[in-house]
Amino acid sequence: MVPVPVIPQTIPQVTFGERASGSEVLDVRICERSQGGPGVELAADGVWDVFVPGEPRQVLDLTEGAEFNDAGWRGAGAQLIRRLNTVIAGHPVRAKKHLVQVEVPSGAVAAQVRSFVIGVIVGGHTYRISNERSQPRVRNVHFTLAGSLAGAAKASRSRVLDKAVSAGVRLGAATCLSRDLANTPSNVKSPQWLARQAKSVIEGIDGVKVKLRDQQWLEDKGFGGILAVGRGSEHPPMLIELVWDPERVGIKRRGGTVVLVGKGVTFDTGGYSLKPSAGMQTMRTDMTGGASVIAAFRELATAQVPRKIVALVPTAENMISGGAYRPGDVVEHYGGITTEVTNTDAEGRMLLADALSYGAKKYRPTTLVSLATLTGAAKVALGLRTGAVFSEDWNTAVKLARRGAAVGENWWPMPQPVYLRAEVKSALADVSQTPKGPGAITAAMFLREFTRGIPLIHLDIAGPGRAESEYNEVSPLGTGFAARTLVQWLGR
């Protein structure tokens, strides 16, 4: 049986309060050490010691709170939960009763505790399809405070720490949901499946509207890019449209509308510009952008942020058939702009272009955001753990990068030189699908053609959207990258 996407109720229950006692309590101390990375040991007194770096690590000026080594705290939380899950698996009868009690040391900072909780939530989450019986896992984690909390008055310590724990749970839950959506195998995950899951995970949230646009609607409205990509598959393309409006629940809006557009390619063969087999193996995760948009939207709507948020996820399979689109085709997008197809494996931007144009026209937002595992060029430029931020406003790009760094997702602002704009044009159509020049930059400039003059923040997560091996709280396969950044950025 294929696991269904996780929602917060299916991850460990995390609480904060007074100390608990009893034979089923597994006590944990967070300890700082001056050298070495995070680690977990069972002390002689029967208490688990989880070590976090005590010395600050100087990081890039773009990051927020650089004086705190939050990555070490996330890694420590992940190591702890993985180790204790192994321990509890050896006591299946008692597993349901275990309470993992974590003592936060005096002098800790709320942001560090939040990072530790993210590590616990994300590090303990796995996605595996197996006929074997599932092993017992940690179900309850309780945090207590040993003394003072840095930066918090005595009267407000409990409130501040409780808020930090709750924030860590929300951020971790968003990552886990995105990971599950991305890691679901594509023999299960059609565009229709993704649309149903998007509707399911936000069901019951007040103030949210859901519209699942089918192929006929896309044809009637002229979504040529989405239709072109989806033509080769027996599973028709769709457009998932989610709207959170605080005014529907009596909350006054603050700030302008933000439209989030996430790439939802449920499997990518490359089309007639066929991928090699090794490059195709992980393409079930090619909709990580769409998955993170859905997950972030869920958390933002649940938190009732006082800003109107729209999530658009164009979803399709990029397959080969007699009806698939070809290099050399000219596609007319929603809004009338035409694209000369030069590489059918550049399908993500075809989907995003339609959705950006639609979102800009219908909602007139102050900000458009596109999120996608879009270009190998971004991976070459920044590696596997850093996302690329494209914005014409440097301050906006830096602000987003700082928000992401605060919750453990690294970003780097990228240039968009004016001289490259000419490369986007095509002699055959309005624009070329794959302009010459640096691929990640020209892809962002291509997308800007469809924004109707509204500021665009484009996020390319081709590198960090997937992981080849375990590090910190990250597990191999789809990582859920960018879900936490969007929640942190738009939820403040």
UniProtKB/TrEMBL annotation:
Q: Which Gene Ontology CC terms are recorded?
A: cytoplasm
Q: Which GO terms describe its molecular function?
A: manganese ion binding; metalloaminopeptidase activity
InterPro entries per record: Leucine_aapep/pepB (IPR011356), Peptidase_M17_C (IPR000819)
GO aspect biological process, one term: proteolysis
Q: Which family does it belong to?
A: Belongs to the peptidase M17 family.
General function of this protein: Presumably involved in the processing and regular turnover of intracellular proteins. Catalyzes the removal of unsubstituted N-terminal amino acids from various peptides.
| Protein name per its UniProtKB record | Probable cytosol aminopeptidase
Specify the species. Corynebacterium heidelbergense
